[in-house]
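Quick note —
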Amino acid sequence: MDKGKDYIGVSCGTIIFNKEGKVLIGQRGSAARDDEGIWDFPGGAVEYGELGEHAIEREVEEEFGIGIEVIELINLVQVIEPEKHWIGPAYVAKLVRGEVKILEKDKFKDFKWADISKVKDMKLTTPGRQNLEAYEERYGLKPHPEIL
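Predicted structure written out below.
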C-alpha cells in the first residue's frame, strides 16, 4: 500500500531562513513522489511515533545535511487531489549549522537560497504554495522577525 494514495499520508514541511534572511528552496528530482522539476520547501514523511518537529529536523538533515531549529508552526497542509491525499504540519525554522548540499540527488536536483518575495513568482508544489501563503498572511513577504 502506498502513502498518500491508498491511505492518507502524513508529511511535514518547513520554510528555512538563513542568517541573511533568505529561504531554502529545492527543485524536486526524479525520485520525488510527484511534482518532478517543481520547486518546494524542504519536507518529508512523518514516521510512526515521531513528532512533526523531529520529523522535519530529520528530513532536512537527511536531504540537505544541515541542522535547523524550529521556530513555530505556520500551517497545516491539506492536499486532496485525484490520486493523492496528504496532510501535515509546516514550520518556520532557522539554519543553525552546516552548509547545504543535496544528499539525496534523486529527490532534489537543485536548490537555492532566495528572497522570500522572489519565491512567490516561482512554480511551487501545492503544499509549497499553501505554506508560502500562510507565511505571507502572518508576516508578509519578509524574513521572519526572529531571523534578523
